[in-house]
Amino acid sequence: MGGSTGTLSLFFPVFIPAGAAAVAYAGHRAMYVDWRMWATHFLTAPGWKSRILLLLFLILNWKSLPLAWTVRIFHSFIYHVLRRPKTLPQRALFHYSVTSSRTSLLETDYNMHKSNSTYFADLDVSRSHLVTHLLMPAMKRIGNNDKTKLVMDKDGNLIKGGFGIGLGAVFCSFRKEIAPLQGYEMWSRVLGWDRKWFYIITHYVVKGKVRPTGWDDRKMGPTRAPRVVSADNGEPVSNEDWSKYVIATAISKYVFKLGRFTVHPAIVIEAGGLLPERPGEGWRGGETGVGTPDDLGEIDPEAEWDWKSVELERRKGMQYAGHFAALDGTNSLFDGGEDGAIGNFPLG
């Protein structure tokens, strides 16, 4: 789910069988290797020191090796095909997906910290985990639109084609550096959506410093106690500043496609069972195409999760995503060098 996924409809019928066949063939060939003799030769034959150093270098830099990015992305797909629970609580829509990583030596720049450009490869992996986990059922249903008939055009005609997800833009704000071989975590969640774009926010966080209060599925790591609120005004008693552990923050926007047709994000989220029913014109009504601008009033955070809770979170996120979306207009600033250019330089 980087620049563009092309068509995810190929993933299940093509890539999974091909990958399974490749693994099966590799396993079959491995059965005929004398691993004890191979290991003895590797560790004792002339040149063993160089081989061990090379192996150590490859292990420390595995995520920067050729095809490693592809392996990481496809691992996220396959992992959630095999391990995702059948249903998720609707609150999970705005919950974080946590992915751990470590800076390899080959990601380190001349300033001796993680190169800014390498953050975006990690973002691909983190977003893939989040979106695949949340929306895998929706991907299957919308990809099979001939039968489910979830996506129609404005005239009521059935839309055909393969389901795909395209990355429209990424913004990243850097606060702290990440040292060579330092571990870190990427906390990604849904920020909001409008009639076209689906926004995701990702925080790079110091590893091991922040724990969630719980997990939607089985226990996947340590947790911390839920925040305590005052009995008088409902305000949090503890004012822990979690932002002090944030290394960088990125916002990404996705567009969902069925063939060449742009699918409203609310259709995809609804197909995944993560949107409570909204009265009136629903999640795609009103002038903005994301629901009528109802006054949500006071919302009790401990009350039942309903459409008002979802809309409140969506509006919070769109206060930031809206400014990000406005940057699309900067394309018009390009004038083709109307007043000249500095030069055309090699090795770009």
Automatic annotation (TrEMBL):
Keywords: Membrane, Transmembrane, Transmembrane helix. Pfam families: 4HBT_2. InterPro entries: HotDog_dom_sf, THEM6_lcsJ_thioesterase. Residues 279-300 are annotated as: Disordered. Signal peptide: none annotated. The chain crosses the membrane at residues 6-26. Belongs to the lcsJ thioesterase family. This is Capsule polysaccharide biosynthesis protein.
